[in-house]
């Protein structure tokens, strides 16, 4: 699988200083042999079976990292059922046609101040990490958020979640440690005609891709 280039900084209002020294654990790169470039697109209600299968495939540790709590199969399935219809937006990354990573943008709080903030959650399946999927999803979600007038992206993870902390601080976000959790905020740049145009094109493409992957209806049976 090829790693896409492109700076995330483009979306963010201003770089901030790192506040936490991070460890540097050894990590294994995802093997690229035989894998197509990932396709990112918005997930719709029609993707519910793939989203359900994705969350059910996740191991307990990944689920705990994503939801910051232990999540059994029943809870994972129930969340997946609602994920694409809850407020916000869900983007999926498909590798060789299979959903392997999910990024979620959820409105944060309520009222005028709350409406300008959104929370982001990322989940990349094991075996598909360190290939840029998390960063690509964050880039797509950041663009969608800025185009909707959101001024700040919030990210939360467990404080021992080195991968997420690194990803986020690598973008210049500041992380605050609080009672076993890390919380970060990324200020977003204002929308531009280019960012709106780019999202418009991507949305049109997303729709076509989603329709193309719908199962074909059964053939009409000729009346006797
Ligand atoms: C956190 C997570 C989304 C990262 O996804 P990913 O696709 O592996 O991330 P990327 O490949 O885009 O990595 C971007 C950068 O983040 C950092 N990073 C990612 N994983 C890391 C790890 N295991 N250790 C150290 N740094 C890591 C690196 O700086 C990396 O850049 P590099 O590969 O050029 O060094 C993924 O590990 C995951 O799904 N974890 C379980 C769910 C979770 O914790 N979600 C966060 C809470 S919502």
Describe the 3D structure.
This protein has 224 residues and is of the alpha+beta class. It has a single domain (33-210), classed as Aminopeptidase, CATH 3.40.630. Helices cover 34% and strands 21% of the residues. It is built from seven helices and seven strands. It has helices at 48-57, 60-67, 73-83, 111-114, 133-147, 162-169, 193-212, and strands at 39-42, 89-95, 98-107, 117-124, 152-158, 174-178, 181-187. The protein has a seven-stranded mixed beta sheet, sandwiched between helices. Helix 1 packs antiparallel against helix 3. Residues 2-9 and 14-31 have low confidence and may be disordered. Coenzyme A binds at residues 25, 27, 62, 65-66, 121-124, 129-135, 157, 161-164, 166-167, 170.
The description of the largest β-sheet is:
7 strands, mixed
Provide the helix percentage: 25-40%
Q: Helix and strand string, N-terminal first?
A: EHHHEEHEHEHEEH
Q: What is the CATH topology?
A: Aminopeptidase
Task: Looking at this protein, list some descriptive labels.
disordered N terminus, 7 helices, 7-stranded mixed beta sheet, 7 strands, alpha+beta, 224 residues, binds coenzyme A, Aminopeptidase, 34% helix
Sequence-ordered SSE layout with sheet pairings:
Layout: E1 39-42, H1 48-57, H2 60-67, H3 73-83, E2 89-95, E3 98-107, H4 111-114, E4 117-124, H5 133-147, E5 152-158, H6 162-169, E6 174-178, E7 181-187, H7 193-212
Parallel strand pairs: 4-5
Antiparallel strand pairs: 1-2, 2-3, 3-4, 5-7, 6-7
Helix pairs in contact: 1-3
The chain binds coenzyme A.
The site of coenzyme A has 24 residues, from helix 2, strand 4, helix 5 and helix 6.
């Amino acid at each position: 699988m090829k790693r896409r280039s492109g700076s995330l900084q483009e979306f963010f209002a201003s770089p901030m200083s790192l506040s936490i020294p991070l460890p540097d654990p050894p990590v294994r790169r995802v093997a690229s042999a035989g894998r197509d470039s990932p396709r990112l697109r918005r997930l719709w209600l029609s993707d519910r079976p793939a989203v359900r299968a994705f969350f059910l495939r996740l191991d307990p540790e990944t689920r705990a990292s994503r939801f910051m709590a232990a999540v059994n199969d029943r809870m994972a399935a129930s969340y997946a059922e609602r994920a694409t219809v809850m407020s916000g937006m869900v983007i999926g990354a498909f590798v060789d046609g299979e959903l392997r990573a999910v990024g979620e943008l959820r409105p944060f709080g309520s009222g005028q101040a709350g409406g300008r903030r959104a929370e982001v959650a990322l989940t990349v399946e094991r075996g598909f990490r360190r290939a840029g999927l998390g960063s690509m999803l964050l880039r797509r979600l950041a663009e969608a958020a800025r185009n909707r007038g959101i001024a700040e992206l919030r990210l939360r993870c467990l404080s021992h979640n080195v991968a997420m902390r690194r990803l986020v601080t690598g973008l210049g976000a500041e992380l605050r440690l609080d009672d076993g959790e890390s919380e970060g905020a990324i200020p977003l740049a204002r929308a531009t005609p280019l960012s709106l145009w780019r999202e418009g094109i991507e949305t049109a493409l997303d729709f076509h891709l989603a329709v193309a992957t719908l199962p074909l209806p059964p053939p009409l049976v000729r009346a006797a």
